[in-house]
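Handout, tutorial session.
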Amino acid sequence: MTDQGHSRSASPSRSMSALLPLLAPVGAVGFTATWAVLGTISTGYQMWDIVVPSYSPVSQPVSGLGLGETAAAMNTSFLVCGALVTLGAWAATSTWTHAGSPRRGHLARALVSVSGIGMAICGLFTLESMMMHSLGFLLAIGAPAAGFVLAAAVTRRTDPALSRLMLLAGAGAAALLVIFLATFDPQSAGDNEGTAGLVQRVLITVVLGTIAAIGIRATGAPRTTHSSTDTTRTMNAPPAPTA
């Protein structure tokens, strides 16, 4: 009776734990929907004594939505969705520490999961706090790009399909980050010139889309534990000789 009661009480807890990775796609979709909608209704913003009279999603970065009339909604999304992404990614990548090299698995897990923390930093520190905001951007985008490549090596044998996806996403995100940094000019963006805003949106979509895929994949992937591995080995072992 005691064992049955314990099993019943533990079952909901295990079910909730198994669903935690889905927080990553929820956060990714929520954040994407926020900047997509706010980008169509923003009427511009003021940063220090600089007035930007209109907002262009093609030319201006997502962070511009963290100022002006859209500030409250955008910065709340940075914080809430960032928390969801980090919690979901951390839960989804727990098996990486048991695949391949544990050290590389831990590092890849940290680099991918820190993306949501970077998002939260961007929500706490707007473009008017340029250094902290830039740090948040690099953590949100640059860190997971490196993490994808590292994780691709870690999961190459355990999940080849996900490994290939992360390798492509890591390389693509790195290339897009370089293009964005090379083409973004604050003056041109303020004048709604150039395509840096569009490049950044594709970059964000690649990174968050990959994290969402990792979360979804984790909910359907069988989890291998040490006990199950040992059991399998015992079952497959040849029978002991009899006298």
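The second record follows below. Compare its token runs with those of the first.
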Amino acid sequence: MVRLLVDREAVQGRVGELGAELRADYQGVEPILVSVLRGGVVFLADLVRAAAMPCLVDFMAISRFDASEDTGVVRIEKDLDLDLSGAHVLVVEDIVDTGLTLTYLLRVLAARGPASLRVCALLDKRARRIVDVPLSYVGFEVPDVFLVGYGLDLDERERGRGELLAVDDLEAVRDNPALLDLPTRPNDAWRPPRA
């Protein structure tokens, strides 16, 4: 029903590794890290601390409408405040699944003339991919299950968990959210292979 997929130590360890990669790759440059509200905020905050490098941070908020499930086209509710022209831009995503929305966002951002545009995703749900989207940095490849924790929500709750839980019976968990507190032993965590 609910199982521990990635424990908090594995999450923090991998975020630390990604931060070190970014620090090395962006040495001498001050990139703009862009996150889509709200899910990516937890990952972005930890990643910025782990990278410990000069960078700027900005946010977008998007909303979906009926056709967006098939097209990835979304409405931008809050746009970036920073000018991307000539900047090195890193889109920081919590999870990439179909790739449709991210592909659309990358087109929108590329039209603003950045010097470079790359993606750092904590989670890659490749099994759901419809559009191949270039991911420069990936934390974990995860199976096609509903995930909760570390920024990922269940009805706007549970984002603050340090671990990632796989929810196999979503309705049962919606009826009884206390089920999310059951899988707490780190030894039960599946550690996905790193990309």
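Points raised in discussion: The chain is about 25% helix and 25% strand.
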